[in-house]
From TrEMBL:
One family name in Pfam for this protein: polyprenyl_synt
A GO molecular-function descriptor: prenyltransferase activity
Entry superkingdom: Eukaryota
The UniProt record lists the keyword Metal-binding: yes
Single GO BP term: mycotoxin biosynthetic process
Protein name: Geranylgeranyl pyrophosphate synthase
Sequence segments annotated as region (Disordered): 520-545
Natural source organism: Talaromyces atroroseus
Keywords linked to the UniProt accession: Magnesium, Metal-binding, Transferase
Coiled-coil ranges (or none): none
Amino acid sequence: MMYSFSLRESALALVQRLGERIEDVHGLGFMSPAVYDTAWVSMVSKTENDQKMWLFPECFEYILFHQLEDGGWATYASEIDGILNTGASLLALKKHLDNPYQIISVSQRDLTDRIDRARVFLGNLLNGWNVESTLHVGFEILVPALLRYLEEEGITFSFPARERLLEIEKQKLSKFKAEHLYLPIKLSALHSLEAFIGVIDFDKVGHHKANGSFMASPSSTAAFLMHALQWDDECENYLKNAISSSSGQGSGGVPSAFPSTIFECTWPLATLLKVGYVFNAEIEPAVQKIRSYLHNTFTAEKGVVGFTPLVTADADDTATTALVLNLLNQSVSVEAMLNEFEEDHHFKTYSQERNPSFSANCNVLLALLYTPDPSVYTSQIEKATAFLYKKFTDSDLDVQDKWLLLSSEIRSLMVHGENEPQKKRLHPSLRQEIEKAISSGCSVLLDSTAEFASGWLWIEKVTYKSEVLAEAYVLAALKRAADLTRDNISNHNANGVYKIGVNEHSALPNHTHSDVVQHSLQTNGNGSHDEEPVKNGGIENDSSTIIHTNGTANGYYQRSEWTADQEQILLGPFDYLESLPGKNIRSQLIQAFNKWLKVPEKSLTVIENVISMLHTASLLIDDIQDQSLLRRGQPVAHSIFGTAQTMNSGNYIYFTALREIQQLNNPQAIDIYVNSLIDLHRGQGMELFWRDSLMCPTEEEYLDMVANKTGGLFCLAVQLMQVETTVEVDFVPLVRLLGIIFQICDDYLNLQSTAYTDNKGLCEDLTEGKFSFPIIHSIRKNPGNRQLINILKQKPREDDLKRYALSYMEGTDSFNYTRGVVNKLKEEAFNMIHCLEKQDLEENMAIRKLLARISLEL
């Protein structure tokens, strides 16, 4: 079978079809209608002219029409489809039975009969349901929510897997709080707001609306319309458009996502491009239109995209968009993708993912391999390859994935790097059998394309089909089959993908191997190496790698991998200061508050590490800005490593600490971290301004500064702990007070303690020109006498002048005043501790000891 030019014509026709629709005002989408989402839309009611009515009766008619004889609704390709479709439809039937409103096409008797049959069908499905084997995304929150809503309607179900289902739901929601949805952060949960009825205040999530919908989900948008106090015309119009413009074409059925413009443009294109179809954006308007749209969207959303503009980004759509753009000669960066989705051992699809996705890691790997210079991403390529290799071998080559139902489709993601010349080593009889099988397969595809397009292969909330995706896969399979039987096999690129702009019959040079991929695929999954060539089914494979990169190994420049030695250079100042023992007060504070908060050990370790990193980094910067000479009795870091290197080291740690925070997988934690760093720099900025402009702040202004700076770091620790625990008590006021007490004590000791003198020098705050608490009091006690402020202006290093300043401050009674303020604040703190302990919290001696340790004596 030879490569037919009509295949390319068919492929181009598909691309042109996408190009014609990509600028539709409502977006495009070919996902098949979902009974589940349609049922939710059918439950939207609206009051007009003081009369309540069902807003979308055509959706309810769709539900009635698609109820099966056995009482249930379609189980497309998995039992969870039937559970979700039937559960939502049963709820809709009950709502309409209780409130018929304007619908008179179905009698109460008919509805009651339908409900009874649906109840029996759903009960049977639940009784036989294997929860553990269910992979569909979000089922663990959608099904329990449906069961609760049905129970409120008097319809209850008891089934063997119920307890296990609720355990999985609890695990899924363990790090999720309703308040997360009120933040200006895009979360995947926005796609399923219907699961949070009675849990969230829908009036507080309206800011997430984009183009009239909530993450392009009809069911989620319907739930918002049903439960927000104020009616939203944009949401109503979105649902009308979803009914009329989606694949349901006005029948009343809506898909689980609409529009899906990015997804349903990039995935067909990627499928076609990866097998060698050539599209030139410079001469083909549809390709140019799609490329421009994708590039503009990718740029506008800063390098991470979802299945349609303005929805939560995911690794699959981001990677596939980057892949398509790079294959269409529109080079884009994948750095944002790595920053958003890279984990220690794999790439996540989105935040708070319960199980990593095999296909998502395949797509990320492909995106990395087709960047202009894959060698830049060697460590990430190795990570994804190792993850895929282990998943593939651990599953006996039968990988299950939450986004794809067919394991054959998953395996196809792994073969784009197969080594074409190996086919020449096939035994003649085996070659003949393979070619015969390929020919038969092509005949089936050509004769049954429409049937193949009707397959339920892809997963959203429920399984769906897509005619454009199906057509793309058929065309890809036929193209691959044609290429396999051609005599000039060697004309193919080693990874099966043509560079765009090259004639489809021309040869391309073989790409070079990535050393890191060689290493990953030479292992047998246990870290050992297979030294013998693999022999299987008549094929002898003596290649040490499966995947090839299109890197420029022979180019003038290749970016080297970051080394441990280079890392050590950057961390030199930080490591030096870390090696000098400090008071360790922040670690003690964390441990003391954990007596109450009971934070999981893994999270606590991350928080302790982050606070230690930030404290040390801030000291590096402080010592530069204060022109200090000693820190903890030793030379300051910048006197050894230089000012520029030390400042860079401190700033570098701020960002590496943020990466540590990402391990918590909690969007609130990142928000808290960013706000705390902002507060820290605000506090430091005001302190520097007062010093450099010689403006003495008021006591109130000083305490505000301390709350931002010292108190801010204290608060960061406890705020991070609070979002990682189930204890619902706010400890921030107490910890902020402790930070203020600590700083005032530190100010006092800097001027009065001989131990401080040994570590930092005599009255270091005077040498730095710093307005500390006792100094502020002394200056403001006698504002007409400018002796002290003039001494501060000179930043004295002479001990005699500093001792004179101390004598002056004794004369203004500033040290006695400071002691009185500290005693008053400590009494207030002890009272707060006592009040907290009365709120069903255990007695916390660790907090009391910590407060006692923060004193005016060393």
